[in-house]
Amino acid sequence: MAAWAAYDGCDVEPTIDRSTPGLAVTSWSGCDDGTDVELWTLAAWGHRWPRATEAGQPGVIDATDAVLDFFNDHGRS
């Protein structure tokens, strides 16, 4: 992700948001042309696709909704 951040002209040091239990969102800011670089790390999920219906799992998010929200926020110019 650091390589993507460098390619997009982002700040070298990311920030890490751990406000949701079991989820760490690492973000690089200051990127060129309004781009964003983020890494979402979910504890104990491995390579399973997280769904909000799996209550009780740490860091439960609906990955499909998160990806679609990202694309809606960063449409093609």
Overall tally of domains: 1
Backbone CA Rg: 14 Å
> Which structural class is indicated by helix and strand composition?
alpha+beta
Helix content: 10-25%
User: Strand order, biggest sheet?
Assistant: 1-2-3
Low-confidence residue ranges: none
DSSP strand tally: 3
So what's the overall shape? globular
- Along the chain, the helix and strand elements come as HEEEH
Oligomer: single chain
How many DSSP helices?
Answer: 2
- Strand content range: 15-25%
Largest sheet: 3 strands, antiparallel
The separation of the N and C termini measures 23 Å
Mean pLDDT: 85
Descriptive notes:
- This protein is of the alpha+beta class and 77 residues long.
- The protein has one domain.
- It has two helices and three strands; from the N terminus they run H-E-E-E-H.
- It has helices at 2-7, 63-73; strands at residues 15-17, 23-28, 37-42.
- Strands 1-2-3 form a three-stranded antiparallel β-sheet.
- Strand 2 and strand 3 form a beta hairpin.
- The longest helix is centred in the last third of the chain and has 11 residues, at 63-73.
- The protein is globular.
- The mean pLDDT is 85.
A few lines on this structure:
By secondary structure, the chain is α+β, with helices and mostly antiparallel strands. The protein has helices at 2-7, 63-73; strands at 15-17, 23-28, 37-42. The chain has 2 helices and 3 strands.
Name the features:
77 residues, alpha+beta, three-stranded antiparallel β-sheet, 3 strands
Question: How does the SSE layout of this entry go?
Answer:
Elements: H1 2-7, E1 15-17, E2 23-28, E3 37-42, H2 63-73
Antiparallel strand pairs: 1-2, 2-3
